[in-house]
Amino acid sequence: MSDTLMLDVAVRAVGWALLHSVWQGALVAALTWVLLWALRDSEANVRYAVACLGLMVMVGAWTTTAWRSAAGLSFEARNAARAATVMTPPALLGPAGPTDTSPAIRNISAADLARTDLDVGRASWQRRVNRWSPVLVPLWLIGVSALSVRLAIAWLLVERLRRRALAPVGSAIAERVTSLARRLQISRAVRIAQSAAVQVPAVAGWLRPVILLPGSALTGLTPAQFDAVIAHELAHIRRHDFALNILQTAAEILLFYHPASWWISRRIRAEREHCCDDIAVSLCGDRIVYATALADLESLRGEASLAMAVTDGPLLQRVRRLLSPSPHAARPSNWLAAATPFVLVLAVIGGATRSNVSAAPGPQSVPPAEGRTLPAGYGAVRGQILDAASGRPIEGATLEVSGTLDAAFVRTDEDGRFETAPIKAGTYFASVNARGYVLSFFGQGNGTSLRGTPIEVRSGRVSSGIDVRMKASGIISGRILDDRGEGIQGVEIVLQPVQGVGGAFQSAFAQTVEGGRYRVSVSPGDYYVRAYTEGSIKPTKGDGAQAYVSTFYPNARKAEEAQPIRSEPGVEIYDIDFPLETSGKLRVAGTVVDPSGDSLDTVRVAVRSMGMSSTNRESSVSLDAKGRFEVRDVVPGEYMVLVWDSRRTSRWAGAMRHMTIAEDVDDLELRASNGASVAGRVVRDPLSTRRIDLTDVHVVVERQMEGGGLTMTGSMGPVAADGRFALESPGGPVTINVVSVPEGWTVKSVSLDRVDVAGQLVDLGGASTHQLEIVLSDKGSTVAGLVVDRNGQPLGGYSVVLFSDDQTRWTPSSPFLKEERSTQTGQFRMKQVPAGDYLAVAVPDLPFRAFTKADVLAQLQTIATRVRVNEGEQKVISIRASPIPASLIP
Hints:
By secondary structure, the protein is α+β, with helices and mostly antiparallel strands. Helices cover 29% and strands 29% of the residues. Among the domains are: 169-186 and 222-329, no CATH class; 379-470, Carboxypeptidase-like, regulatory domain (Immunoglobulin-like, Sandwich); 474-583, Immunoglobulins (Immunoglobulin-like); 585-651, no CATH class; 676-777, Immunoglobulin-like (Sandwich); 781-888, Immunoglobulins (Immunoglobulin-like).
């Protein structure tokens, strides 16, 4: 064939592929949706595989159709060319003889007539496609080309990120990442670096991956949170998500015009993040720690994102999944995208020659509930967003109503009012964003609730009165100076809230630019302004013997000696200038002792900075032949001194020391504790009726540290199908916690050597061996009810605390401690409550996780009411609200 004919065949083949992809993609999306719905209780890995398979089938159907169409059109073209060289046959004669030219239809059967009509219809469609192809195919090519250029630019940006503006991290952090990579069985070398160009941790590269960390992640996260976040990024590397994301993006470019591909691709990205979240939780063992880390990262996340990065999931949705896991958390947009292909199928069947598929109306166009009927099982939320100071309505504010069952997004009108689209009946939280204002939550109050007051949405009803008053954000600006009085670029700024003063809750972060200038937008409240820099920026004086230390405004080393700055709504505070203080470098020396007499060749000692209170760095050293160590060049500040050994990690948990280092330390002793081996077994309660996969259960041991803090110290092998597992634990006071059980199951008992120790501190010292049995039951109890005032009127936004009458069970991770906030209608519901005797109380604005502290529970005990919960009971109670004890008021 000639080049012109080949081009014509290619254009027509692509045109046919574009047409057929409409119904093919619709069918694939429908089947994918059915499978995902059927597998909603399955693991994220299964749903991820189903979504990937759906996208692969769409691409395969497109390419197969194009190839087969091209082959058929080529065959027709060749036949037409040959026919052109053959003499035209004589005309068909009519039945009356050679002169009869009437149509010969009398001998045509009904089947032939039907076949003729079909051929005419097919020819009509072919002519339509042939007419459309010269227009549609170039438009499709323009879209593919534009998106390909965008992909190439994203690739170049990622490559630039991997090679430029990277700062090295401490050797101890690199070793922690290497240790986590080994635990995940990652054989490739993983590079980790700090980058000012990213706002949340991200992975770039496939064959030579690099984890990019913002400075705020190194300072704003605790060690446990940091390890969990890094485990998530390493999970992306182990799963080769960077390469898979490139293939996914290529598929998106090919099918950019099809809504089904958008929906399936969004599900792939969401499930990909869920898969890595599950790996991180499995590795680190604490959903609360990891969820808190994700919530902190969300506050640091900016608007910009890189198409080639793999960590692009919605963090708030992931936090909700971790804290309140539910297999039914589908967003309305997902349902809409899944339904869109069916509309396209109807359009194809109807023979439409032009499609005008428009997006669903934006949430701001949702009509008021009056005059319309809400679907069965659905409700809506209505309210108003106002300025807290003036009471003026805020137009264009974005409100998200989210829960485990559904979600809705809406913008306020010119009067600040909103009403959501129908959402499934259930419990939700509402958050509001508006330019120039602080992120706000409905019913947040003056406490430290992360999500505010729950909203109860009822079937066929509109939950009205969901009003939020937003505070305008304030700004603090100034300069950071060096030891010569000149501005320093690259200094980290932390605005640390003065807890209990002015209502400030979250920290804010920034970095100085040219001239040492900084400018930070913050919530109204009182803050300490802290500046610090890493070892890469050195003083100009002192010949290397001096170092910059963490400094609070105006020139203090400690927060309690600093001058707080009050941020007012809508006001910028200028000239908060101060110099970085310098200090001589110190040393920390001492001895490591192992009473067992084992070799200390593989033992190392690390001096790790404690986030907000010291310069962000870490140093580690090995021991000499006598077990002594010496860490030099330590900058004054707060540190955690710890010991680790790859062979006996749990034995050294008790050797951790939280220290304020202000001078040389010469005689520090770090002593290993005698650990214990635990032979464990998870069993199903004989009275339970459901089947259970015991491999989904996760058990951890937590060591009680000085000051009441907890650190994860247990190391557990996988739970076998028969429920058996082995556990290594350090000596001393620990709690044994079941941090993950299958949906619908609860822990009935945790027996150590035949003694129930659920929620209690136990001592596993003496290098002994213990027997542990965990009994699970599907007869979980529920405590629900209503919070009322003295007149019996319901009260929303109150903290309802249910805690064991046995004070030995008042440990931070105890299953016998529960807290829920009452909804706007005063209702609350607590699931998976172990049977036992409890105390119940409802108070306003209880600080975040204060219910896990024994001293707080001791004060609440005096105003609480006794409640008995039996196994499998669905208990309903009414609690009269009490004022919060004066000693708990910030």
